[in-house]
Amino acid sequence: MKATEARSSSFPARQRWPLYAAGFTTAFGAHAVAAGLGAESADIGLSLLGLGILLALYDIAEVFLKPVFGALSDRIGPKPVIVGGLLGFSAASLIGLWADQPAMLAAARLGQGMAASAFSPASSASVARLAGKKTGHYFGRYGSWKGLGYAIGPLLGALAILAGGFELLFGILAALGVAVAAWAAASVPHLHPLPRPRYTILDVWRQSTERSFLGPTTVLAAATGALGAAVGFLPALAAREGLGTAGSVAVVTVLAVASSLVQPRIGTLLDRGVLADRPGMVAGLIAIALGSLMAGVLPGAGWIYIAAILIGLGIGVATPLAFAHLADSTPADRLGRTMGSAELGRELGDAGGPLLVGGVALAAGLPWGLGALAAVVGAAAFAAPAANATPSKQAPAPPQR
Which of 44, 98, 243, 383 has the fewest Cβ atoms within 10 Å of its own Cβ atom? Predict the structure, then answer.
């Protein structure tokens, strides 16, 4: 590891916490609103098609804009993109104060997704630049806080809607965005744009098709696709087994908590040299595949909960290893673009996982749908990069301002 990278790890921990909070914000906002839309769709006059469109708007915005804002953070530095994105998230959330109108809900949801497209890849790029030798450790923490947002988002969103409707939920999200933006503005160091060589279209194509990028991005897409499918279909399986609403929703919470608890520990093992990239990613994906297969084949609510734990642990193992590999194998001058493109892969997985399970389930039943998911996730293990990344951050350590 170069001395310049070692100096980056001297940044105090308080400068990283707002980045974790930004990760929590995007996950919490996405899942809290999505759960609320599903629960209240009939009351606000949404058809199933309308509900599907509203649920998809957030992800559609992220698919198109994350690489764009990731590249922007390379050009102007990540901090203004983070702060601006969080303020944009708050502004879009204020539109949701008129949530009794589906058109305003759509505008709020789309605006939130556009804003998250800015601060999410910029935050992960900042984590990479501030991590120094500890990319595994810090991406483990970052992923853990995102997992916490996935876990408590539906619960807190439901409580907010019960207490004050969508107006209260969107008001909370607006306040959260402003608070995290202020925290980031005060605490995150200004990471100056680094000297960037001129890249041709051929260079960008070559960088986007390297095994060091495609491998971990495929792992991230598979893990996120399994998460998206599990969030929707494990509660459905639990309901079939006679569990009530609370017991069915709790399956998702168990999965997210398992993922959040394991991620920092996996990152630490990576940094200590105890765990290597490829074996860890393969083990994580195999755990996800086994959990998905278990949920589809073994009857009984107990097996569904065990499957949720196994899937959560697999996601918690594969995700920080894939992000750390990307951070370690990418020159610092294009971390934003790389993280934005990797996040694009995650969003495609998030959309593709539920579509795969739902499509196969429609034709052959839910057990076959989960079996298909297990097969695809297992196949993604072959894409895991062959060896630990060789750090290639050639640029000097950014000055702090």
Answer: 98
pLDDT tens-digit series, residues 97-139: 886 677 888 888 899 999 999 998 889 888 888 877 777 778 8
Distance between terminal CA atoms of the chain? 24
The two three-digit tokens of residue 177, written as one number: 């965005």
* pTM summary value: 0.74
Among 87-91, 224-228, 299-303, top mean pLDDT goes to 87-91
